[in-house]
Amino acid sequence: MSAPVPQSIKRRVVGNNVWLGHEEPDGQELLARLSVQKINPDVKESEELVGRAMLEEIEETARRKQSDLVIILLGGRGAQALHRQLGELAGTDKADDLLSRLHVFTQDALAPMRMDNGLSFVRDFERLLGDDFFRKVKSFTSMRTDTDNLEEELTRYIEKLESLGGIDIFFLGLGPEPNAASHLAYIKPSSGANAEDVAGLIPISSSILEHHISKFKAGGSRVTETDEAECRAATHILTLGPAAILRARRVVQSIVDASTAPAKRGSFRRVLETEIASDPHERAQQLDENPGLWTRLHPNLRSLVLPDVLEAESLV
After folding, report:
1. CA separation (Å) from 305 to 171, 243, 264?
2. Distance from C-alpha of 158 to C-alpha of 150, rounded to nearest angstrom
3. For every residue of 169-214, which 3-state class applies, written as one string?
4. Contact 283, 276 (CB under 8 A)
5. Of 57, 157, 130, 142, which Cα lies nearest the Cα of 105?
6. Cβ-based neighbour number of residue 63 at 10 Å
7. pLDDT score recorded for residue 312
């Protein structure tokens, strides 16, 4: 996983983490220029309504933009209602024009792992979106996890994503971490990610594996003993990084599984309430300790949540 990458993509190593991105003249200055935003959670009464709101985001973007759309799918529970609704639409001819304009990408993956493992996001997408969806979209690109050179494959993934002109909608979740910290995609605390990093490879932890397996089972995925054993043997996570999130034209976050992952309540509250420093060095430290805070630096974010995400933390 240490093969050289093309000149346009810079490789940066932080501990055991490898980050790929584009070199900026002054990364600290870039971080300091980002304005801090307040998040006003958009509370929906059901997962289906969250999914409907996410679908409407795609439809609205398609109305405003005449050319193709690039979207980043969210794995796990957060977007399952959206995926079911997209699958239903794909089974009709009502959205064929929209679907034919979609370039669809995944945002993270466990590796190494067979692409047909029931605990891979791709299998879950296929289960919920259905064959018609994949037949009708313009392209679907996932992170390859069955290769001997993960870094080289991730570089190819970045290059394809960037060749299409950038991300129109980045569908994003929020993962809980100890001390009410959080991860985005799989940008983990203390992984050294910065505003220049488009994607990375980070070592896996037992907490990530447990969270991943439990949320897939809670979401209804069919998981065999062989699938679970292979998943538990994974060594790395491939993930999009802060630069991909920040450069997306629209970020739509959804948090719908506080009932099965109650630690998300405290993690989300910390994201909402943290006072982000203006000093770039202090800000960088805050973001590394709690990557969920990157959402506070995006100027066009919508955060969709169910009521129980807020209730236990007395935020309603």
Report:
1. 13, 24, 11
2. 12
3. EEEECCEEEHHHEEEECCECCCCCCCCCEEEEEEECCHHHHHHHHH
4. yes
5. 142
6. 9
7. 54
CA-CA-CA-CA torsion for 72, 287, 182, 40, nearest 10 degrees? -70
Q: Where are the domains of the chain?
A: 33-311
Parallel, antiparallel or unpaired: strands 69-72 and 102-105: parallel
Tens digits of residue pLDDT in 2-29: 444 444 889 999 999 999 998 766 667 8
| Separation of alpha carbons 159 and 301, rounded Å | 25
CA 77/CA 218 separation, integer angstroms: 8
Span between the terminal Cα atoms of the chain, in Å:
46
Q: Is 314 exposed, middle or buried (0-12, 13-18, 19+ CB in 10 A)?
A: exposed
Token pair of 250 as six digits: 């629209």
DSSP 245: H
pLDDT in tens, 122-137: 888 998 999 999 999 9
The residue type found at 121 is: F
Rounded to 10 degrees, what is the CA torsion of 65, 67, 73, 77? 40
Query: Is domain 33-311 in CATH 3.40.50.1360, yes or no?
Result: yes
